[in-house]
Design a protein that fits this description.
Radius of gyration: 23 Å
Oligomer: single chain
CATH architecture: Orthogonal Bundle
CATH class: Mainly Alpha
CATH topology: MetI-like fold
Length: about 270
Amino acid sequence: MRRAVNIVPGSGTRVLLALLPFLLIACLYVVVSAERRAANPGDKLLPPITEMATSMDRLATEPDRRSGDLTLWSDTVASLQRLFIGLGAAAAIGLVLGLTLGLLPVASAGLSPLVAVVSMIPPMAILPVLFIVFGLGELSKVVLIVIGIAPFLVRDLAMTVAAIPSEQIVKAQTLGASTWQLMLRVALPQAMPRLIEALRLSLGPAFLFLISAEAIAAESGLGYRIFLVRRYLAMDVILPYVAWITLIAYLLDWLLARLARRAFPWAYVQEARR
């Protein structure tokens, strides 16, 4: 008897299995939306797909009367700019501190407890403090992403570096490697694949912090638009914007995965053999 654990789907079957849940969700939405509209023609909770498509076409192709910008694209650019700056700063902090804490016992003894405590602070709880300290401009939104993501990256990379076999460290020192050479030639190459994987795991929280900050104080952005139209119960805009944010996050995750496998193929040898 063939066990389910030993059944490995082919590439075509994988695609079908991946698409099936989305098709079922779409069909369920169409049916429920049609039933709600039949019972109440003025229902706004689950608008038909045609209405959402019309609204998104208007936001993507018709200039805004006040600013003259194409709303969807200007919101997307504003949000992605904040996201990329925040993730980039968090990645730099995570890499530098992660290498330092993972490789230097003195630094780990002095800073690891602080990093652990900071990582437990709910970023949303200090959002008002950030607005007071940094103002309502772009900086406070970027800092929120950094505070929310960087401690996790630091701890994750520190544990990755600390897990490097001691034999590698000893052999490198035997060959005359200095601390800087150990960090750059031994620890850094092994930390980079994990940094990219950690960034992939951080995309969801990063978008959460971004949307939250934009909802409170912003004049453009995906989160700003969602919370602006909520007062009109404009679900034909809100739901497509949520789907658009999800698609962007998925594409970023896919690009990071491709980057990791292209730049560091040796880190995925075992995965490729499965």
